[in-house]
Write a structure and sequence with these properties.
This protein has six helices and nine strands, in the order E-H-E-E-H-E-E-H-H-E-E-H-E-E-H. It has two domains: 2-81, ACT domain (Alpha-Beta Plaits), CATH 3.30.70.260; 89-157, 2-Layer Sandwich (Alpha-Beta Plaits). Strands 5, 6, 7, 8 and 9 form a five-stranded antiparallel sheet that branches. The protein has 187 residues and is an alpha+beta fold.
């Protein structure tokens, strides 16, 4: 069963209510599924927030998790996706020892080779930024670790949009509006 696990990205849309994040993460805890990354931000729909959650799971398990989350009263819509169904981006920040960077010219070459950008240099530290996929960001980190120059490292949670020409939330809200209007006509 372990080999059936894949990395899934769950997109959850909700109104912005306190405590909802705790309710969502509790679903994962109850099913003993570890969240790999979590990003919460405003969505393209005013008043609606988007949770982007990644986890290793089987399709059967992620389907159950998604349905449980969607039952939460403040959740508007929840769907899960594989990487090939999404445009994905993350950001890595690396704080490096300036002294070691200056002593080892190969470090700058590796930063450029990996598509990183040096965004600040001062006598104590050098800040490098890299955006891309998880494995690209981790690869640069591992390369920099070989030089023993990393003072701090942080990687953002995944942000993602679907490759679908239709926004699933918009479709859901339109269907909900039609049902509401039909109910109003009957009343």
């Amino acid at each position: 069963m372990e080999q059936d696990k894949k990395l899934y990205t769950l997109l959850v849309f909700s109104e912005n209510f306190a405590g909802l994040l705790n309710q969502v993460t509790a679903v994962f805890t109850r099913r003993q599924v570890n969240i790999e990354s979590l990003n919460v931000s405003a969505s393209s729909t005013q008043g609606v927030h988007k949770y982007t959650i990644t986890c290793w799971s089987t399709e059967e398990q992620i389907d159950k998790i998604t349905k449980q989350i969607e039952k939460k009263i403040d959740v508007l819509k929840a769907d899960y996706f594989t990487d090939d169904e999404l445009f994905i981006q993350e950001v890595g920040l690396y704080k490096l020892s300036t002294q070691i960077v200056l002593e080892q010219p190969d470090i700058s070459r590796h930063i450029r080779k990996h598509g990183g950008r040096i965004v600040e240099v001062n006598p104590t530290y050098t800040i490098v930024s890299k955006k891309g996929m998880t494995d690209e960001i981790v690869s640069l980190y591992e390369t920099l670790q070989e030089y023993n120059c990393v003072l701090q490292y942080a990687r953002s949670g995944r942000i993602a949009v679907t490759k679908s020409p239709v926004e699933y939330l918009d479709r859901y809200l339109e269907e909900r509006r039609k049902v509401y209007e039909a109910q109003q006509e009957k009343a």
